[in-house]
Write a structure and sequence with these properties.
159 residues; Tail terminator; two-stranded antiparallel sheet; 2 helices
Length: 159
């Protein structure tokens, strides 16, 4: 149950959470759920028009700290939405980040119960925004199985 597996499983969980949300894109005729990726937004090919990747959610590994009692990873969840409305664009980003936080804390176990979201769960909407893209940043701790002395994990199922 490595950090790579944890990130991949968290991506899948967040995909489930945001799948029914409909948000603006750069095409005024299209609304869709955010794409969810690990670590970064993939590069687009030259044939892809405009900024079609917005809205998106990126799940990024930050660090891991293990001691004799716990193994905690820090993850950052970065969300991007699109709105040309300077007075209302912040609402979409806050709605998406709130939905992600609420669902992850309501059901903190994921990855077949190998991983658990821990509090504190921090959400930040930076004052400076790359308009017309709106960014939200969330930071959470994820409890992971501990490493045993032989380099494996102490349990196949964590909880």
């Amino acid at each position: 149950m490595t950090p790579v597996i944890m990130i991949d499983q968290l991506v899948e969980r967040i995909k489930e959470i945001v799948q029914h949300i409909r948000l603006e894109t750069t095409d005024p005729d299209i609304q869709r759920a955010p794409n969810v990726w690990a670590e970064t937004v993939p590069k687009k090919s030259a044939s892809e028009p405009g900024n079609s990747d917005v809205p998106w959610v990126i799940v990024r590994f930050i660090d891991e700290e293990e001691d004799d009692e716990s193994n905690l990873a820090t993850v950052r969840i970065i969300t991007g939405t699109f709105s040309e409305d300077e007075r209302e664009g912040w609402r979409d980003i806050l709605n998406v980040t709130t939905r992600i936080k609420t669902e992850l804390l309501k059901n903190p176990l994921f990855g077949d119960n190998h991983f658990r979201i821990e509090k504190p769960f921090v959400t930040e909407i930076p004052e400076e925004q790359p308009f017309p893209v709106w960014i939200g940043i969330q930071t959470a701790k994820v409890a992971m199985p501990m490493t045993d002395e032989e380099g494996g994990y102490q349990s196949d199922v964590f909880w």
